[in-house]
Here is the input.
Amino acid sequence: MGGTRPPAFPASRPPAVLSSFEEFIRTSNRPLSITVPLHRSCYLHSHAADRLISFLPRSTLLALRAVSHTTKEWAHKHHPDLLTTLHITCPLPRYPSRFSSKTLSSLGPRCRQLTIHLLPSATQIHMGSTQDPSPARQIFNLVNSFQSLRVDAPLTDAFHPLFSLRLALEQAPLKSLTDLRFHHLTVPGLLGLRWGGFDAFVDATWMGKTFWRGITSLRIGMTADWLQWAHHEKLPREHHPATRGKQRPKARDVYRQGIQMLHDWYFQFSLGGHIRRLFFEWLGDDDDDDAAGPNPFLLDAEIASKEKDSEWFSAPGIRWHGVQEIWLGGIQVASSDVAELKSRFAGLEKLMVWEELAE
Here is the structure.
């Protein structure tokens, strides 16, 4: 097609002219005179620009990063922990843009705490493959220096997104991660996080062993709505959307399956001997913040003592080694429970329970 060609960019651009504000940041080297209490004037051995940034809120500091290279350096010089916490919302685009990849590459080395928020549409998350990695795999390849990971999964069916996330975690180079947190965890989500049989930690061929053995602090906030199904026959349709038009499972069976999976999951962790701190809390709805449920570390004893038909739960109690702290929320703990926990957790040093629910 015809037409004039746009002018080519010069091979080298002249340096950008600094604004008055940037000049102030770079050249303000006089001590700042201030008045301290008792009305005594003094000089601080700092620049005026240094004093100015101490009054700026975090939102302004983050905005300064995008203004210019000068303001970005200024913000990070005085607040090196400015971007140590990152929040990422899923679902992610299947192929992150070049800009987002570049941004994550620059922020990755600074990140110490990563939070992933799963949205309802994340149930259709891309699983990925060796040739076409999932968005989670791509993120962990760019951001992998964080020490703490929190996953918020307020989804009715969280199996697929958490299953994909688990695979990405097990295959990513996360050598610094020691603190793992799951919030609003449901029974389907818990199923997606299970990695296999009881002998996984002693299986030399299991690739995920390196990741899970690096976790020393495990925090779980689990929804308690499914606990009420223990004595119900029918399961609410909204809690089992995949079976619309078909015969739904009984509510009692779903409850029992959830209890068994929770016990099984913790049993697998106990085999590794690497956990030092355990946190568990039952979460209620917005209208019921005082949710209460069974002690996840004494499920065998609670089922045997509180349910007439306890034959469906035959798993033995879990014995732990190395755990130093236990934090419980939404759980009623009696003095006999404390004694039982001490006998099951060799070397336990601290047991903390939310005061309003402790007996």
